[in-house]
User: Which sequence fits this backbone?
């Protein structure tokens, strides 16, 4: 394969990745904006037994459901690369079945990002307003 052709293939792949990345960031920001009116005051921690599911909301935010109707938005420190691309996440719990903003982390792909803020999501109101996915 010629150098020019290899460069062209690399350039096309890079542009496709950049477009997908921009679309994903745009979608994540739209989701973050959709959740914003339903966020309650920040809390220091929350109790859980397991996670029902989660949703990336950009490079520093994820929504996690601890039950079908109980959800939290976790904000992590800046400098948490590729969180929005994670295939799966975990959350540490230094105290039994309690996630704390002081001590715990979102983990994924051999990374751990300190949780800096925890906000309950008024998911019942979100569902009542037809905004829940």
Assistant:
């Amino acid at each position: 394969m010629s150098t020019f052709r290899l460069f062209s293939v690399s350039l096309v792949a890079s542009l496709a990745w950049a477009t997908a990345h921009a679309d994903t960031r745009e979608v994540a920001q739209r989701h973050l904006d959709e959740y914003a009116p339903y966020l309650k005051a920040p809390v220091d921690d929350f109790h859980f037994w397991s996670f029902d599911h989660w949703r990336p909301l950009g490079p520093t935010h994820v929504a996690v459901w601890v039950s079908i109707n109980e959800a939290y938005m976790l904000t992590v420190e800046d400098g948490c690369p590729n969180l929005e691309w994670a295939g799966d996440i975990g959350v540490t719990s230094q105290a039994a079945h309690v996630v704390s903003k002081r001590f715990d982390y979102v983990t994924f792909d051999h990374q751990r990002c300190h949780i800096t803020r925890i906000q309950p999501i008024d998911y019942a109101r979100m569902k009542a307003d037809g905004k829940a996915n």
The chain has one domain: 3-128. Helices lie at 3-35, 123-128.
